[in-house]
Amino acid sequence: MKDALLIIDMQKVYLPNKQWACENIVNTINNIEKKIKGFDKRHIFFSKFIASKNPIGTWEDYNKEYSNINSNDYLNDYVDELKKYINSNNSYIKNTYSSLKNNGLYKKLKEYDRIYVTGVVAECCVLSTIFELIDIGKKVIYCKSCISGIDSIKEQSVLNILEELSPIHVEFEY
Questions:
Q1: What is the pLDDT of residue 138?
Q2: How many C-beta neighbours within 10 Å does residue 81 have?
Q3: How far apart are CA 35 and CA 111, in angstroms?
Q4: Tens of pLDDT, residues 130-155
Q5: How confident is the model at residue 91 (pLDDT cuts 50, 70, 90)?
Q6: Where are the domains of the chain?
Q7: Positive or negative, the Cα torsion across 87, 46, 134, 58?
């Protein structure tokens, strides 16, 4: 079975005391680093949200609402701890919740049987990406210790949803 590791939106805006802080982000960063060490670097992929210059529909409203964050290069940058693993061949920009909306990443992940999912935010970008992975026929491994939500209650709500798709579509790694 061919496995890939997907690391979703590990950007500085989710760090403690930032606008979109995720409660467990520090542990998540450490656990993602451990997970990376178990993968060949050719099978590790990163996505990062960058607001579209030409948003459509509600994304136009979203981008206006959060323009102070969207225009901040520091907040949009990857967290420092993971930068050493990122290069032009494994990093993909997205403008919506799902990482699969980036056509290059979509094509790469189509080559794999199982996708180990990590990153932030559990209840939005991670969940949206998981549903798209399932829709294209991929087995998803939800790496709980490598995923953060806004808080533990929201993280648990995502697990509750995904447990209904298990074991056919989603497996859990704790």
A1: 98
A2: 13
A3: 20
A4: 999 999 999 999 999 999 999 999 99
A5: very high
A6: 3-173
A7: negative
Average pLDDT over residues 109-127: 98
What are the DSSP calls for the chain, one per residue?
A: --EEEEEE--BGGGSTTSTT--TTHHHHHHHHHHHHTTS-GGGEEEEEE---SS--THHHHHHHHTHHHHT-HHHHSBPHHHHTT--TTTEEEESSS-GGGSHHHHHHHHT-SEEEEEEE-IIIIIHHHHHHHHHTT-EEEEEEEEEE-SSHHHHHHHHHHHHTTTTTTEEEE-
**Tokens 């990482």 label which residue?**
99
Cα dist. 102→17, 149, 161 in Å? 29, 22, 25
List the structure tokens of 97. Answer: 């919740």
Q: Which residues of 132-153 are buried (b: 16+ CB within 10 A; e: fewer)?
A: bbbeeebbbbbbbbbbbbbeee
Report pTM: 0.97
The total of other beta-carbon atoms located within 10 Å of residue 4's CB is 21
In contact, 116 and 6? CB cutoff 8 Å: yes
CATH number belonging to the domain at 3-173, selected among 3.90.1150.10, 3.40.220.10, 3.40.50.850, 2.60.40.650: 3.40.50.850
Give the pLDDT confidence score for residue 101 in this predicted structure. 97
